[in-house]
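Saturday, quiet lab. Running sequence design on the structure tokens for the scaffold JK sent over.
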């Protein structure tokens, strides 16, 4: 709950900042000189990039949460079996052991989104955020593709029709 509150607080602050920066860009454009118009347009690009990034990050978090809830309902969430140091940090050797098992699961079932989800958690536990994100994106894609295929079969249609 604290993580959601922090996320929404930071997102609201970012949106406020984007509006503030965007208004400054508009003021520069309204001055009408070639230099201020070019600079104002450049300033307007920053909030657009920020909004795009915020949208994609929010969508990723929402989709990962949706998969986590579904996996939890199935009883398939990974159990925290990691050893920890006295300070509470995850023991690296323990994370590597779990990661090796998760990677084997993915190699045995490369089209199972559940295996990719658990691999993403193992990457995160091993502090490899870029690979964790890619593995989660793969899990989301596999889940959504399998969901579309099953919906098309139940509706008597195919994904290629349209």
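Result came back. Writing it out in full:
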């Amino acid at each position: 709950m604290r993580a959601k509150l922090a996320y929404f607080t930071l997102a609201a602050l970012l949106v406020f900042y984007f509006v503030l920066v965007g208004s400054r860009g508009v003021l520069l454009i309204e001055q009408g000189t070639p230099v201020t118009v070019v600079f104002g347009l450049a300033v307007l690009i920053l909030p657009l990039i920020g909004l795009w990034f915020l949208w994609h990050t929010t969508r990723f978090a929402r989709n990962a949460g949706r998969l986590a809830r579904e996996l939890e309902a199935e009883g398939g969430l990974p159990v925290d079996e990691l050893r920890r140091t006295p300070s509470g940090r995850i023991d690296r050797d323990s994370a590597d052991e779990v990661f090796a098992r998760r990677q084997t699961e993915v190699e045995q079932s490369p089209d199972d989104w559940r295996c990719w989800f658990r691999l993403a958690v193992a990457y995160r536990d091993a502090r490899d955020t870029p690979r964790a994100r890619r593995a989660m994106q793969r899990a989301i894609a596999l889940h959504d593709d399998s969901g579309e295929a099953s919906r098309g079969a139940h509706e008597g249609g195919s994904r290629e029709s349209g």
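Notes for JK: The chain has a mean pLDDT of 87. Residues 2-74 form one domain. Ask whether to fix the surface positions before the next round.
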